[in-house]
Structures are given as C-alpha cells and as structure tokens.
C-alpha cells in the first residue's frame, strides 16, 4: 500500500507504538479490578476443585459482560459489582451439587440479579424509595437477563456507549468506562494517561456522582447520539486492546483475552456505526495483533520488531487490516486511528526491517505532530527519524522532548534514548538511560530485556 503523505489529513489522539526499541506500546491499562480467587488455601473436594477452575475460566472470559448486563438491569454500578461476586460465590457452593448449568453466563446473571433484589429488599425496610425499584426488578423476567431487545447486540458495548454520555467530562468518560466496565485498576489507567492514581480516582468518583445526580439513564443512545460518543468509545476499546497486546505489568507480555475482547467490540462498533474511524481502529488492532506470534522467543523473551520472524505474522489479519485502512482513506473523513493504521500497514508490507519505508512513516508522523502536538507522537516520530536519518538525528529530538519534562516518568522515552546512545557508542549515557527505564517499567519481560541490554554494555567494556 503506497500512501501519499499529502493525501493524509488527520488529527492525532495518541502516538502509534514505537517501532525501534520501545516495545511497540503507547498506552496501557491493566488487570481486571475484581480479582477472582475463591476461598484461597481452602481444601476442596475434587468436584468443588473442578468447579472452582471452571469458574475462574468463566470469570476471566465472561465477568465483564456479566457486569455490563447487570449494570443495565440494576442501574447501579456498585450494586452490580456486588451482585457479580455474589453470583460467582453462590456458583461455587451450588454447582458441585447441582452440576454446571447449560448456560453458565445466563445462570450467573440471573443469580446476580436475585442477589441484588435481596439487597434492595433489605434496604427497602429502611428506605421507602427503594420499594419501587425492588418491585420493578422482581417483575423482570429471566429472558431479559439473557438477551437484548433493541438495536445493540452486546451489553458491554451498550454500557461503554452509555458511559460515554456527553454530560460527563471527556477524561471522566474514559476513566469510568475502563474502571467499571472493563475492570481495569486506577493505577493502570493512570499509567495509560501518564498521570497519578488519585487523579484517576477523583475522575471516577465525579463521574459516578454526575450519573446519579443528573439521573443519566442506562440506555442505548439513539442513532443521532451515537456519533458524539464515538470518539470516547473508540479510545476505550483501543486502551483495552493495548493492555492485551502489551501488558503493563506482570510476568506475561500479553493478555490474549483482552486483545480478543477489544477486537470483538471493534467489530460490533463497525456493525453498529460503519464510520471511517471505526474501520481505522479495527484495522489498527488487526495489524498489531498479526505480529503476536513473533513478539516473543520460544523461551518467552521479548523480540523487537526489527528482529522478528515475519513469516510468523498472520497474513489474513494483515490483509483484512489493509483493506479496512484503504476503505477508510478513500472516505477522506478519517482521523487518528486510520492514520496510525496506515503506519502499521507500511510496516506490515516490508519484507524485512531493512526494507521499511521510513521516509513515508516520518511523513505520516509529521502530519500527526502538525495536527495535534503530543510528546508521545513526537517521541514516535523521533524514533522514525533515527531510522531514516541516523541515531544522532533521532537522539537530538528525544533529548529535547525529555528536557521539557513531559515524559520524565515514561520508561519508553528513556529506553529509546538509551538505544540511540548505545548505537552511537555513548555507553555511559546509554547505561544511565537503561537504568532509568528499568526503574520505571513494571513489565517483567521488559525488565529482562533492559537488564540484558545493560549486561551487553558491561561485556563490551
């Protein structure tokens, strides 16, 4: 796919993942905030142990959708969260005796709903305002917990769009959705936005208060309302994908279930609203995901883009992604995700690292930096400049960014600087930058990669 830089007009939401030494990740989110570890340390009989394992798998795969459905049914985040846990705890008690139901997800939703009704009944004894809510929930049929009877085919997507209500501040919409719908921790969301956990927590509290005080309904937005909520919905889906593609912490580099869930939501969004930027987002996720098999060695070590075995790349995903990029570009109404997908497409078409069209990639980053300046975009552009013009040119740009103090605590910026210093033979500076990056990262495989770089520097003394 040959792209003319002059034909690509777009605004930038976030920079594309770094292509040289910074692990191809811009943002990160995190683990499910509701960790599921039923009765740790307790000895269980074989049937109960098997059920526990089944429930752990179900929790990882389905808890987000179950929570989304219960929030819709109950109209209350906190009540729904408690109901999810009550349902899984009840399943651990009942399923060893009764057997695993034919439709576990529907069983858990129904059980969670009844548990919530019990809670509301108890509240109603002390608060007459709860009586009407309790009565409404009691009249809800089991069928409503298993299906959706309007335009959206997925409760989780429905809830994401609901949380993107324009009455909420833009940053609060994203934080609330990631925390309450996608189950990501405040710490991990804070890292995604290069801010602090207390700041994120305050945004979430304010968003919940706004929903409560303004009585914002938990309902599917109309066709007229969807476009204004689309930008935030796309951002949320991509943040979830990024955490699945390159986990922010832990021993595993990736979290396959999150990437798969984000891609599924992207496809649902495209069915609901086939706009160019939705195509661009889905294309970007497919093009990134196509490299998963090549990103780690057989021993589990991180493999940078330039060293990956490209025969392992998923060509079907690449073909689908490029097709979506081309459709979005032809519309001439595309935005940042389409432009980032175009950059990914340029990488995907290179048979090896040496044949990458770096001048074209720099031109695309130039457009991003012009449209909406961002330190992360500048950092990505600097890496591309280093590949086009040499490490010295890229290093000058990175050092200027760091001198402004905007990416002081961003480990990928220090990793990029370290790599360019290493290539220039400036070992002391490279060592210091690698050590700074190592002190900031919380991902085990990234840590091992950086430690290996430091050992290599010492061996070359």
Note down, in words, how this protein is organized:
- The protein is built from 20 helices and 2 strands.
- It has 461 residues and is mostly helical.
- Among the domains are: 46-146; 274-357, no CATH class; 374-461, Serine Threonine Protein Phosphatase 5, Tetratricopeptide repeat (Alpha Horseshoe), CATH 1.25.40.10.
- Helix 6 (155-163) packs antiparallel against helix 7 (170-181).
- The longest helix has 29 residues, at 46-74.
- It is globular.
Give a summary of the structure in a few sentences:
By secondary structure, this protein is mostly helical. Helices cover 64% and strands 1% of the residues. Among the domains are: 46-146; 274-357, no CATH class; 374-461, Tetratricopeptide repeat domain (Serine Threonine Protein Phosphatase 5, Tetratricopeptide repeat, Alpha Horseshoe), CATH 1.25.40.
Trace the largest sheet across and list its strands: 1-2
First-last Cα distance: 44 Å
**Strand coverage percent:** under 5%
Shape: globular
Order of helices and strands: HHHHHHHHHHEHHHHHHHHHEH
Work out the radius of gyration. 24 Å
As an assembly, this protein is single chain
- The class by helix and strand makeup works out as mainly alpha
pLDDT average, as an integer? 80
Low-confidence stretches: 2-35, 141-152
Number of helices: 20
Main sheet attributes: strand count, strand direction, barrel closure: 2 strands, parallel
Helix content: 55-70%
Number of DSSP strands?
2
């Amino acid at each position: 796919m040959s792209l003319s830089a002059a034909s690509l007009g777009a605004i930038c939401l976030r920079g594309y993942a770094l292509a040289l030494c910074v692990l191809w990740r811009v943002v990160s989110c995190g683990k499910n905030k509701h960790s599921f570890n039923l009765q740790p340390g307790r000895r269980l009989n074989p049937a109960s142990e098997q059920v526990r394992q089944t429930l752990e798998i179900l929790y990882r795969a389905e808890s987000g959708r179950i929570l989304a459905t219960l929030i819709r049914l109950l109209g209350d985040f906190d009540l729904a969260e408690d109901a999810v846990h009550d349902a899984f705890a009840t399943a651990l008690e009942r399923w060893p005796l009764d057997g695993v139901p034919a439709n576990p997800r529907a069983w858990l939703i129904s059980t969670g709903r009844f548990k919530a009704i019990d809670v509301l009944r108890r509240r109603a004894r002390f608060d007459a305002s709860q009586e009407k809510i309790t009565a409404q929930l009691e009249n809800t049929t089991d069928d409503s917990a298993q299906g959706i009877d309007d335009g959206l085919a997925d409760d989780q997507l429905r809830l994401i769009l609901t949380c993107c209500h324009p009455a909420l501040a833009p940053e609060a919409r994203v934080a609330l959705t990631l925390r309450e719908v996608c189950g990501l921790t405040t710490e991990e969301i804070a890292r995604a936005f290069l801010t602090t956990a207390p700041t994120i927590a305050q945004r979430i509290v304010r968003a919940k208060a706004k929903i409560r005080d303004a009585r914002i309904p938990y309902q599917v937005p109309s066709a007229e309302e969807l476009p204004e909520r689309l930008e935030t919905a796309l951002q949320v889906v991509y943040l979830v994908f990024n955490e699945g593609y390159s986990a922010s912490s832990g021993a595993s580099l990736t979290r396959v279930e999150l990437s798969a869930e984000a891609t599924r939501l992207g496809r649902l969004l495209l069915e609901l609203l086939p706009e160019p930027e939705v195509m661009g987002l889905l294309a970007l996720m497919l093009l990134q995901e196509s490299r998963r098999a090549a990103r780690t060695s057989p021993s589990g070590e991180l493999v940078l883009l330039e060293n990956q075995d490209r025969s392992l790349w998923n060509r079907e995903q690449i073909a689908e992604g490029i097709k979506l990029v081309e459709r979005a570009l032809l519309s001439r109404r595309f935005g940042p995700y389409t432009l980032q997908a175009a950059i990914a497409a340029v990488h995907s078409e290179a048979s090896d690292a040496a044949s990458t069209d770096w001048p074209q990639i720099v031109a695309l980053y130039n457009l991003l930096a012009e449209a909406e300046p961002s330190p992360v975009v500048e950092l990505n552009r600097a890496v591309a400049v280093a590949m086009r013009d040499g490490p010295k040119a890229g290093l000058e740009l990175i050092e200027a960014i760091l001198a402004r103090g905007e990416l002081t605590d961003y480990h990928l910026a220090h990793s990029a600087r370290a790599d360019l210093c290493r290539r220039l033979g400036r070992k002391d500076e490279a060592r210091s930058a690698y050590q700074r990056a190592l002190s900031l990262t919380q991902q085990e495989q990234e840590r091992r990669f950086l430690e290996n770089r430091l050992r290599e520097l010492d061996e070359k003394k």
